[in-house]
Design brief:
- This protein is α+β, with helices and mostly antiparallel strands.
- The protein has one domain: Glutamine Phosphoribosylpyrophosphate, subunit 1, domain 1 (4-Layer Sandwich), CATH 3.60.20.30.
- It is 33% helix and 23% strand.
- It is built from 9 helices and 13 strands.
- The strands form 2 sheets. It has an 8-stranded mixed beta sheet with strand order 4-3-2-6-5-1-11-12. A 5-stranded mixed beta sheet has the order 7-8-9-10-13, with helices on one face.
- The chain starts with a helix and ends with a strand.
- The structure holds aspartic acid (ASP).
- Aspartic acid binds next to strand 8.
Length: 329
C-alpha cells in the first residue's frame, strides 16, 4: 500500500470511530452517587482494630480518607510487636527486614515503595513519593536514598528486633521456606476508607512473607494487585500469598467486578474462585480480599477460614469474619 493511501485509510478509520463510537459494555449507565456524611473504615485482620482507631480520629472529625488511611496503617507499622508489618516484622532468608507499601486516592493518584530497609514508616514514604515526585514507585536502595534526602531517618533500634532475630536464627537451622495458611509468616494490613465527603482512599503495608528470597516483592506495594481504588466504583485490598494477587491483578479485578454490578462480597468471591481455578498451586496457602463500594457496602472472601477484618463507622467498631471456600484445621 502506498504511503498516501495508507494515510488516507487511517483518516477514514479515525473518522469512522468518531461518527460511530463503540458502546462500552463495562460501564453501567448510572453509577450511584457515593454516600456522604457516613464515614467508614475497614482493614484486614485483628490489628485493623487499632489501625481503624487511628484512621477514625481523622474521619470522625471530617478529615479526608487519604490522610485517614495513612495515619491508620502507620499505627500498625509503629507496633514493634507486629511480626508482619513494619520493622518489627520477620526478615528475608538472609536476615534483612524489607518493607513494601502503597497508597491510592479517590482520583487514582498513587504512591508505592518496595524493598525498603531501616525506615519505620514505608506508608509515609509512599505518600511522599505520590505527593512530591512524578513517579508512582521507588524501590530498594534508591527508595531509601530518596527518603533520606526527603526528611526520613533510619530507625535507631536493632532490626530485626531481638525476638525476631532469635526466631530467625532458629529458622536458619533448617532454612525451610513454607508459605502456610497460618498467621506466623504473613498478615499484611490493607485499609479502605470512605470519608464524610464521599471520597475513598486505601493503603497497604507489609514486611512481606517471612524468610522470602532477598529482593522478593509481593503484591502489597503493587497498585492493582494488593490495592486498588476507583473513586467511581470503590476499592479493594488483599492479604496472603502475594504471588497469587499479582498473577491475577487481584484488587483491580475486584473493583472491575464491582463496576459491573457485583457487591463487594461477590466481587471478592469471584477473584478467590478465579485464583483457585487458575492457580492450583495456591493449595494450602491463604489469600483474602476485602472490598468496599462507594455506597459504603463492604465484604471479604478468602480461600481458607480464619480471615477477618475490622470495621468502624459511627455505630460499629467490630471484627467481621469473612466467608471462605475451604476449611483449614
Ligand atoms: N501479601 C503479602 C505478601 O505477599 C503478605 C501478607 O499479606 O501476609 O508479601
Amino acid at each position: 500500500m502506498s504511503r498516501r493511501r495508507f494515510i488516507k485509510n487511517l483518516g477514514l478509520a479515525g473518522a469512522g470511530l468518531a461518527i460511530n463510537p463503540l458502546k462500552s459494555k463495562t460501564q453501567p449507565p448510572n453509577l450511584t452517587p457515593p454516600v456522604k456524611n457516613n464515614p467508614l473504615v475497614i482493614s484486614t485482620w485483628i490489628h485493623g482494630m487499632e489501625a481503624n482507631a487511628g484512621a477514625w480520629e481523622i474521619l470522625s472529625n471530617g478529615g479526608n480518607a487519604l490522610d485517614a488511611v495513612q495515619k491508620g496503617v502507620a499505627v500498625t507499622e509503629n507496633d514493634l510487636n507486629n511480626r508482619s508489618v513494619g520493622l518489627g516484622g520477620r526478615p528475608d532468608r538472609d536476615g534483612h527486614v524489607t518493607l513494601d507499601a502503597c497508597i491510592m486516592d479517590h482520583d487514582s493518584r498513587c504512591g508505592a515503595v518496595a524493598f525498603l530497609e531501616e525506615i519505620i514508616h514505608p506508608i509515609d514514604v509512599a505518600r511522599a513519593i505520590m505527593d512530591k515526585t512524578p513517579h508512582v514507585m521507588l524501590v530498594g536502595k534508591g527508595a531509601q536514598q530518596w527518603a533520606l534526602e526527603n526528611g526520613f531517618t533510619k530507625a535507631s533500634f536493632q532490626v530485626p528486633v531481638p525476638p525476631v532475630q532469635k526466631d530467625y536464627e532458629e529458622w536458619r537451622i533448617k532454612s525451610e521456606y513454607k508459605t502456610g495458611v497460618n498467621v506466623e509468616n504473613h498478615d499484611t494490613i490493607g485499609m479502605l476508607a470512605l470519608d464524610a465527603n464521599g471520597r475513598m482512599a486505601g493503603a497497604c503495608t507489609t514486611s512481606g512473607m517471612a524468610y522470602k528470597i532477598r529482593g522478593r516483592v509481593g503484591d502489597s506495594p503493587i497498585i492493582g494487585a494488593g490495592l486498588f481504588i476507583d473513586g467511581d466504583v470503590g476499592g479493594a485490598t488483599a492479604t496472603g500469598v502475594g504471588e497469587a494477587m499479582i498473577r491475577t491483578a487481584g484488587s483491580s479485578a475486584v473493583v472491575e467486578s464491582m463496576r459491573r454490578g457485583a457487591s463487594p462480597e461477590e466481587a471478592c468471591y469471584d477473584i478467590v474462585q478465579r485464583i483457585l481455578k487458575k492457580h492450583p498451586g495456591v493449595d494450602g496457602m491463604q489469600v483474602g480480599f476485602l472490598a468496599m463500594n462507594m455506597q459504603g457496602e463492604t465484604g471479604g472472601y478468602s480461600v481458607y477460614n480464619g480471615f477477618n477484618y475490622a470495621l468502624r463507622n459511627k455505630g460499629q467498631n467490630e471484627m467481621i469474619d469473612a466467608k471462605y471456600m475451604r476449611t483449614w484445621e
